[in-house]
Design brief:
mainly beta; 9-stranded antiparallel β-sheet
């Protein structure tokens, strides 16, 4: 049976991960946000991905978060999306390239991401650019840049991390 390792991508840059065709994918991720002093409250935002891999390196599905970080007045966040990866290093391409388009229901925002990645020995580096047409439901478009790396420490173990920063983030949403 074919399978796809979760050790091939960083937590938040997933634009070229498209899954195996005909496979239903269910991923569960917790995101934590810490408030400033004096409260320093930690808020958990469980996020679920439900998607199906389609032919031609395509994935269709949705993300659902029980606590919206992008529209505080909206309790649940849905984002249907389509993802496509025209080039994959695994198939002989010099690098991985992916695109994702989606609609964030909470923010009423058309969102898009383009990502690029390359494996160099046990390390895979990744970068992405995102466009949010209505970031934080403020009727303003924003751009996000992201980068990350994954280090394979063996067949079943990897260490990964990534960082994303919104250019021109509104002051009320600074963490």
């Amino acid at each position: 049976a074919r399978a796809q390792s979760l050790l091939e991508r960083t937590p938040n840059i997933t634009g070229d991960w498209v899954g195996v065709p005909g496979t239903l994918h269910f991923n569960f991720l917790h995101r934590f946000t810490a408030a400033d002093a004096p409260a320093r409250k930690v808020v958990s935002s469980p996020t679920f991905l439900l998607a199906v891999g389609l032919p031609y390196r395509t994935l269709v599905g949705f993300n659902y978060a029980t606590n919206s970080d992008v529209a505080p007045r909206y309790p649940n966040e849905w984002e249907p999306f389509v993802r496509w990866s025209p080039l994959e290093q695994e198939d002989g391409a010099p690098l991985d390239i992916g695109f994702q388009g989606g609609w964030n229901v909470a923010a009423r925002s058309a969102d898009a991401e383009a990502s690029i990645g390359q494996r160099i020995g046990p390390v895979r580096v990744r970068a992405a650019g995102r466009y949010l047409s209505n970031a934080y439901d403020l009727d303003e478009a924003r751009v996000v840049v992201a980068g990350g790396a994954l280090f394979r420490m063996g067949r079943y173990v990897a260490l990964s991390g990534d960082y994303a920063a919104m250019l021109d983030r509104p002051d009320e949403f600074e963490n």
